[in-house]
Every structure is written in C-alpha cells, then in structure tokens.
Amino acid sequence: MTAQITIGHDASGKPVQFDIEELLATRLLVQGNSGSGKSHLLRRLLEESARMVQQVVIDPEGDFVTLAEPFGHIVIDGAAYSPAEIEALARRIREHRASVVLALEGLEVEQQIRCAAQFLTAMFDAPREHWFPALVVVDEAQMFAPAVAGEIAEDTRRMTLSAMTNLMCRGRKRGLAGIVATQRLAKLAKNVAAEASNFLMGRTFLDIDMVRAADLLGMERRQAERIRELERGHFLALGPAITRLPVAVKIGPVQSGLKARAEGLMAMPQTAPADMEALLTRDLASEVAKAPPPGPPPAPRWEEVEADIAHAEERQVEAPRAAPDTSAVAQQIEAIIVAMAGEEGVSFQSASAQYQTFLSRCRRERIIGPMPDMGTFRRRFAMAGAGLDLVDEETRERIMKLAHAVEDDLLAPFLVLAKTASAGEADVDEDALARAYGTSSTGRIRRLLDHLERQGLIVVREDFGGGRSVLVPGLEASATPAE
After folding, report:
1. What's the whole-model pTM score?
2. Is the pLDDT of residue 300 over 90?
3. In CATH, which of 3.90.180.10, 1.10.3660.10, 1.10.8.60, 3.40.50.300 is domain 4-251?
C-alpha cells in the first residue's frame, strides 16, 4: 500500500502528492481566513488517507461528522459524556485504533476547550503498547491553543495549552501526528505553530498574518501580498511531506460533506407586503405566551404586609370568640400552608415575609389556637411545596429522616430532589427545583447542588452537556435534571 495521496493540482495541472508516513513524523499547520477552504482541505486530506491511518478529529463546529457514513468514523458527542467517560473513551480509541470525530458543537466554548483538552491528554497518556500511529486533526486551533489569555478561565487555558503542546511537541514518539488549522496565525500560540514542519497557507488579509505566513514559507516579506490574492480552495504548500519549495495547489474535490451552497445574491421573495406582514405577526401572542416567564414576581412591600396584618387584627377583634377545636385548627393551618406553597411567587419571598403572610391569613380566617413557630412553619411549607403529601407514609418518613440534617433554607429543594428520586422518575423538574429554592438563576441551582454534594446529602454526576444525574443516598432511584 502506497503512503502517497493526492491533495490537489498545481497551476500546470500536475498532481500534488502528500506523503502520509512523512506527515506522521513532521506534523502540519493549515491557515486561512473564514471561507478560504480550510475545512475542504482537511476533509480532502482525511478522505484520501482514511484507509491508511487511524484518524482522530477534534470538531468544534460539527463539520466532519459526515465522515461517519462513507468512511466508518465513529462520532462521539462530547456533550453526552462526563469528563471521566471522555478520558476512558480516549484510552479505548487508542487501544482499538478507531477513527473518530469528537463533535463539540453542543457545548459552550469553555466546555468545548475543557472536553478537548481532557480527551487529548488521555490519548497522550495512553499505555506504551497502544502507541499506534494516528492523525489528530484540530480544527479552529486558535480556540484550543490561544496566544494570549482571553475570556476563558486561567485553569482552562493552562489545561488546553498543555494538551496542545504535548500533541505538537511530544506526540510524535507516541504515534500522534498533529494537524492544526486556524483562521489567524497571530491568535495561535507560537510554541504550537512552531512545531509544524509542513504548511498549507490559504488566503488571509491582515498584515501580521501575511508576514507570519511568509516567514513560515521562507518567502520574502514583499512576496506576502501573494497570500492575499489566493482564491478560495487555493493554498501555498511547503514541507517535507509535500514539497521542498513553495508551490500553489488547488485542493481537489471531496466525497462527503454538505454540498456547497450557491454563492452570490438570491432573488428576493415576491410576497406582497400585506402577506409578509401577516406572516410575521400571525399568532405572535401565542408564541410569546409559550416562552418561559422572565422571572419571579416581586415580593410584596413590607408596608403592604403590615397593613394586611393590621386589617386582619381589626376583623379578628370584632369577631366573636369560640372554643378552639384543636384538630380543626390543625387542618385549617395545614390547608393555608398548602395553599401558600402552591401559589406563584410565594416561594421567592424571604422566610420572614412568608411567615408574616401565613400569620396574616390565619388571622383573616379567624383561626384561634397555637400557631407553629417560624422554624416549624418553614419545614411544613417546604414539605407542602415538594408535594410530600402525595407520597406514602413510609417513604415520607424516610425522606424526612434524611432531611433532618439539612439547613432550613436548603430543605425545600432537597425535598424536591428526594421526592423525585424516591419515585424513580427519569427527570427532575428544573422549574420546580428553582421555585423551591426561590431563584431563577441556574448558577445558584448549580452551587446548591455542589453544596448538598459536599454535605454528603446527594451525589451528582455531570456531563459536558450540562445534564446532571442526582442520586440521594438512602433512596433507590436517581433523578436527572435537564438544563
């Protein structure tokens, strides 16, 4: 089997060959502005060498998942696995020599970077007996090896720089040949770019990128203007795996991927203005109604609460007093607490405001008898909000026994998790969890789960896509909140 592939043709029509065996030892850097044809070039290289060597693609935009059907690549959705599972997958990929595409488009940018860094590090740390040759393609490499600190956390930046540096600097001995593609050479860390010996430079317009590209190609700086004039799909190539002298190459066609869309202008729709307006405004109110509410309603002002209490006290003085029925009073109190727990916005009030509202309603109903103190009220309010009255007595006792050590302000969300886990439901209602905690912030929910886990009250399994599986020790089932 020959190790030569054809990536395209030069200006005279002569095929431009690529030596895959040499590439494994010398690595490749691809640069070009958006629309210059970088993804097309990478796809051509991957398709032509798919039957020769194992391939691993770090794909932040989902451009290369179409390699799966014609060439047998395994698509791994990074959002569907936890960090530990991603590392285990990387080790198995090296062991079994599987060609894969790590698709990261379902993740936020920082999550993409952390997922790719852990994946690459696990591949790099594979046992020596699994050091088989493999091409490792990293598209949009400026994200994973930034030249300067950006908006990502410092620990994330260090992690990804370490992974990319290991791939490009030390990966050869482990059989890993790095192929990095970037839109901007100036944004790519120099120690990563400097390790490549083969270059394919596409169209770029910024002076700093043209000068760096010309330096890498061994061209004089006055010749850098040539890079600006390159057409789409045309690259300047240089390197031991391609050619010893710079040559312009037009990349050949590919088999997979979406068909290129027609460029240029499109005819505007001929819809009449009235019909277009109808298309834009039809059922607009119903669509807005389906959207989630903007946030919790504001808590009542303290002056309103005081006035409500005062009027209730006046009505209570005018009402005739009767001998209290203890059981009836307890039922009335419980009914008020249950009604409050089911009302929209009450859970977003402070504990003191909730308790004052409770006392005010008790006076309004002319309830005479011992009232629960604030601590007792908060626990009963949390139980009502979590719907523990809907579970059997044995389960309720088990849940409350587990909740004995939970702080009062965390009791309501804990009971929501415990009830769902005990019922064996697949998903936890995030809205119910947020409502129980009195917040509309997903960040506060995340910190709540972290705190409960540190207390040993729950066990959280989180994957890169943001989904969490919550297990309550002492209860059999687990719950998965969907974010």
Report:
1. 0.58
2. no
3. 3.40.50.300
